[in-house]
């Protein structure tokens, strides 16, 4: 499975979202590319559909290979760091959004975010 997602950090907090099917489980906003769609086009489309925002100056962060939290299949996750234009509001299949440090005790994060993205953001100084 191929997925493209955004690591959006503002004021030292990472934006995470949850789906209506699993409202207490959080991951990065993004999704699967349509046939023939480039990664940045996928990112732009998904952020618009899910949150009503546009990525600003997206920069490649990493490709993470992990097991997809919901589907339980191997996943190749391409992550871009980006600022956003607009005020994010959950739409489409999303249930919730949260700005998090990643250290909250009540936060259930997708393993790819918890084990790969958070350490990369902390190592770069983007997230404390």
Observed structural traits:
five-stranded mixed beta sheet; alpha+beta; 128 residues; 9 strands
Task: Tell me what you see in this structure.
By secondary structure, the protein is of the alpha+beta class. The chain has a single domain, classed as Nucleoside Triphosphate Pyrophosphohydrolase. The chain is 20% helix and 45% strand. The chain has two helices and nine strands; from the N terminus they run E-E-E-E-E-H-E-E-E-E-H. The chain has helices at 39-51, 111-123; strands at 2-7, 9-10, 13-19, 22-27, 30-31, 54-67, 74-85, 94-100, 108-109. The strands form two sheets. Strands 2, 3, 4, 8 and 9 form a five-stranded mixed β-sheet that branches. A four-stranded mixed β-sheet has the order 5-1-7-6, sandwiched between helices. A hairpin with a 2-residue loop joins strand 3 and strand 4 (22-27). The longest helix has 13 residues, at 39-51. It is globular, with a radius of gyration of 13 Å. The mean pLDDT is 94.
């Amino acid at each position: 499975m191929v997925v493209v997602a955004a690591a959006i950090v503002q004021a030292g907090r990472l934006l995470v979202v949850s789906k209506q099917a699993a409202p207490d489980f959080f991951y990065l906003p993004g999704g699967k590319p349509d046939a023939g769609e480039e990664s940045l086009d996928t990112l732009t489309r998904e952020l618009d559909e899910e949150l009503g925002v546009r990525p600003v100056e997206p920069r490649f962060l990493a490709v993470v290979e992990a097991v997809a939290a919901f589907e339980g299949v191997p996943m190749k996750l391409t992550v871009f760091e980006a600022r956003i234009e607009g005020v994010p509001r959950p739409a489409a299949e999303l249930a919730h959004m949260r700005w998090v440090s990643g250290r909250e005790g009540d936060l259930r994060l997708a393993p790819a975010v918890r084990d790969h993205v958070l350490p990369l953001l902390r190592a770069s100084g983007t997230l404390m």
